[in-house]
Amino acid sequence: MMSAETAARLRSMSAADRLRLTLRMIDEAVPFLTRGTPEEVRRRFDLLRHENDERNRAILEAVARTKTVE
Fold first, then answer.
1. pLDDT score recorded for residue 2
2. Given this model, what pLDDT does residue 70 score?
3. CA gyration radius, the chain
4. Rounded to whole angstroms, how far apart are CA atoms 44 and 35?
């Protein structure tokens, strides 16, 4: 969880600054995703895929709860 100071700093950034920050973080992280044995890399990507699938499922469930029957 981020600190209140970090949240305030992010809110004060322009959209372009937030995008630059995001792209820089991606550039720094990507090389670490492919380091290791082929099995380690496969497991790492499997975990990422699983986490993304779970997050998408939770979002879809939340959206479904907000829909009303008319």
1. 84
2. 59
3. 18
4. 10
User: 7: which residues sit within 8 A by CB, 6+ positions away?
Assistant: none
pLDDT class for 69, splitting at 50, 70, 90? Answer: low
Contact indicator for 45, 33 with CB cutoff of 8 Å: yes
Distance of alpha carbon 34 from alpha carbon 11, whole angstroms: 32
Mean pLDDT of 55-62: 95
Q: How far apart are CA 59 and CA 51, in angstroms?
A: 12
AA identity, residue 59: I
Give the list of residues 6+ apart from residue 13 with CB closer than 8 angstroms, or none: 21
Give the tokens for residue 68: 């009303």
b (16+ CB within 10 A) / e for 15-38: eeeeeeeeeeeeeeeeeeeeeeee
